[in-house]
UniProtKB/TrEMBL annotation:
Membrane-topology annotation of the record: Multi-pass membrane protein
Positions of transmembrane segments: 21-43, 63-80, 133-150, 162-181
GO cellular component, one term: plasma membrane
InterPro entries (UniProt xref): AAA+_ATPase, ABC1_TM_dom, ABC1_TM_sf, ABC_transporter-like_ATP-bd, P-loop_NTPase, Type_1_exporter
Molecular functions per Gene Ontology: ABC-type oligopeptide transporter activity; ATP binding; ATP hydrolysis activity
Keyword Zinc-finger carried by entry: no
Organism lineage: Bacteria, Bacillati, Cyanobacteriota, Cyanophyceae, Synechococcales
Domain (ABC transporter): residue spans on this chain: 346-580
Protein keywords: ATP-binding, Cell membrane, Membrane, Nucleotide-binding, Transmembrane, Transmembrane helix, Transport
UniProt keyword annotation of NAD present: no
Name of protein: ABC transporter ATP-binding protein
Location in or out of the cell: Cell membrane
Span of domain ABC transmembrane type-1: 23-310
Amino acid sequence: MAPVGVQFRRLQRQLAPHGKRLAAGAVALMVLNLIGAVLPLLVQDTIDRLAPGFTMEELAGGAARLLVLATVMAVVRMISRLLVFEVGISVETGLRQRLFDHLLVQEPGWLSRMRTGELITRATYDVNNVRRMLGFAVLNLVNVVMVYGTQLPAMVSIDPGLTVAALSLHPAMLLLVQLFGKRMARLQRRQQEHLSELSDLIQEDLSGISAIKIYGQEANEHEAFSVLNRHYRNAALSLAKLRSTLFPALEKISNLSLLLLLALGAGRLEAAALGDPQGLSIGGFVALLLYAERLVFPTALFGFTINTFQVGQVSLERVEEVLARQPQITDPAVAEPLEPQPAGRLQVQNLHYRYPDSRREALAGVNFTLQPGELVALVGAVGCGKSTVARLLGRIIDPPEKSVFLDGQDIRQLRLDDLRSRIALVPQEAYLFTATMEDNLRYGQPDTERQQVIHYAAAAQLSQDIEGFPRGLDTMVGERGITLSGGQRQRSALARALLQQAPLLVLDDALASVDNATASGILDNLRQHRQSTVLFISHQLAAAASCDRVLVMEAGRIVQSGRHQTLLHQSGPYQQLWHRQAVETSWSRSLV
Ligand SMILES: Nc1ncnc2c1ncn2[C@@H]1O[C@H](COP(=O)(O)OP(=O)(O)OP(=O)(O)O)[C@@H](O)[C@H]1O
């Protein structure tokens, strides 16, 4: 845990914007406690007036005063709680929103290294703990000070000896809550950790359900799940056991302190009955009982408050840890304005890149230029660095400065939004959201007219598929919608990118699930539109052959560049790739 000063500043930071509401809540609490201190005195007065000869009017008057005060108290209590809890809820929702927005600006590489379940835990469980600390705990802390501050003097004024007796068991109550509370907090965290492990496993298994089925691993996955489930169950049961021991124990202590008060109070009542001026009136005794009872709950809650603070501080630290993580891919301090007339000219100069956790350079000095409107294929063996080039062009990972220029502008000097309006990147893995087909296609351009959507769907050779969907463009797709084939997903992602009408379109193996003829048809459409320069990264050499030029990559470098026919007749990696693919194709045909 951080030092107290740091903890205090953290709390202050969260509460500062809600100062007025908190102050209003504190005033309401004070009013509540003042009424709470006066009420037993009124009860005392009303009872002590019940001497022989009291009138019903006197009794009714006393009862009416009590009723009015009790009603006012209930209303003020509600207001004070609403005010303080609202602060907790406002901090909770604000913090969660900040956390979500902060995750959105992080680069995918970092997010994929983090466990999803862990991030969800921080955005839900930990943020909830912060709410409890700033709502429940702040309320109880202020309240307990006020309850004791207003009630103790009144109790002492009635009978100092019995006041000590009434409070004598409170330390035991606090000690018990402290002891149990620490264990409860530990178990709650453990339970939450098991829950996030379970949600990680569910997520992973549902994503990889095909692999599980293909390798017949259902039984193993069942076992892995049941182990985690058992851990969760054990933590939940231990927590339930702890709670069902603690709460009755607290009730017992509270009953004991009342018993003690009754036992000692009886003597004081008897003394008063015998005319001893030091004795205690019945009204005074009832008032003491009421005070003692009103102290039990805040005292027990005070024990929980300390734990809630400790747990809340740890949670706030965990949330702030994520918030403190600076995104690595950001807008430049002073961004260049975008070139007003984009043409789609791309220059890549001496581009080197090494992944953070890798020893070897993925790109070892890549050089190439794409002229406006050119359709250029980038081919090469697996792992040679093609996708790395695509990711760098879209700044999904960051290229060094002065190595990638779009229309003469270093892409590191552009705002990210500007860059992404100029480069449309279609990744290998097409992702569709749970939304209609139309909303999926216009995801990057939500205001696009339907006619435009239809136009670009046709360019991506998707029209026939859409016609075949039950509700055409209004068909729900994604997780809960109909399942699209890999090729349909890829063409949807392509149509989505075409809608952006960016001057440079980068297809990162984005037609891998589409047959050669369809891929060539799509490339023809792109060539006819000529609205963008296109970098077509692919393993499909037959489709690549129809491009204006082919770039060949090997071990992180461009080693050949030229027209297909020229390269095919040069001995080199392209010729080898082409022959290997021709052999594989004829081999696979021979199997049919
Ligand atoms: N996130 C990463 N962290 C570390 N190394 C990576 C990462 N992504 C890729 N690499 C490595 O960088 C090199 C280039 O990978 P890249 O994905 O660019 O190849 P590729 O040519 O697109 O391959 P493929 O044709 O199989 O898609 C490979 O050695 C790969 O292992």
